Amino acid sequence: MSDETPVAELGYEQARDELTVVVKLLEQGGIDLDESLQLWERGEALAKRCEEHLAGARARIEKAIADGEQ
To answer: A GO molecular-function term, please (predicted)?
Structure first.
């Protein structure tokens, strides 16, 4: 997985889909320790990226609601 797009450049759906793949690979096992650690770290970064996208969407929704109430 060395030719991956940097996590910071991924959209929500891309990060979510890749995170799903990472989880499946880790669950299957049979991967050496170094690769497992790399996958885990990538998965953590992907999960954080998804959370960032969701937080941004939540903030925009809350702002739209607040603007609509005024």
So the answer is: exodeoxyribonuclease VII activity
- Nearest Cα neighbor of 18 from 30, 1, 37 is 1
Encode the chain (70 residues) as per-residue pLDDT tens digits: 546 899 999 999 999 999 999 999 999 999 999 999 999 999 999 999 999 999 999 999 999 998 888 7
Note the pTM of the prediction, 2 decimals.
0.84
CATH of 10-69, one of 1.25.40, 1.20.120, 1.10.287, 3.10.20: 1.10.287
Query: How far apart (Å, rounded) are the C-alpha atoms in residues 16 and 49?
Result: 9
Four-CA torsion 45, 51, 54, 59, nearest 10 degrees: -120
- Tokens representing 10? 């991924």
